[in-house]
Amino acid sequence: MAKYFDVHPENPQRRVIGNVVESIRSGALIAYPTDSCFALGCQAGNREGIARIRSIRQLDERHHFTLVCRDFAQLGQLVYVDNNVFRAIKAATPGSYTFILPATKEVPRQLLHPKKKTVGVRIPDHVVVQALLDELGEPLLSSTLLLPDEEEPLTQGWEIKERLDHVVDAVVDSGDCGTEPTTVIDFSGGEAEIVRKGAGDTAPFE
């Protein structure tokens, strides 16, 4: 049965955030809100957590996982970014975007696209996620909480608790969050390629 953490959306309680992070460090798979929609998250080195995300979402090996970062400094350790891409990403973050880029050696191999050796990265504009990332001190491995055969992600904490009670370890709820997944921009070829139109405005990348 999943733990349920009720977090204040503007002033996240330190004790509750600490308990969530303790669960993550203990190997938990969590469902948590972001500035786009709910996501599944675990530590980047949590092989079992990664396998469980693949199972819940029925993902194949070509799926791009996302490393959710606190800031640009953390993001820069995980992916290779040239000057033009740096400026484009810097202008769009924090925000509802996921960027696909070539990964550095800091990224565990099981997270990489098998052929391209790329990974997704993002810096969310969400108070609760930033509090979690501050406390965790490392990126959080994530994937949109979009169930197989459903067109829209789950957006209500209580519904997620009800439906995924036996497949996730914790649900973090801070009230309303977004209802659209992130906009995905692939920079791995040097130029911006819009892979998915979502919550982030695509105009700067067109």
TrEMBL record:
Top-level taxon: Bacteria
Protein EC: 2.7.7.87
Molecular functions per Gene Ontology: L-threonylcarbamoyladenylate synthase
Residues of the YrdC-like domain: 14-200
Pfam families: Sua5_yciO_yrdC
Keywords tagged on the record: Nucleotidyltransferase, Transferase
Enzyme class: transferase
InterPro entries assigned to the protein according to its UniProt record, in alphabetical order: DHBP_synth_RibB-like_a/b_dom, Sua5-like_dom, SUA5_domain
NCBIfam families: L-threonylcarbamoyladenylate synthase
Protein name: L-threonylcarbamoyladenylate synthase
Species of the source: Streptomyces monticola
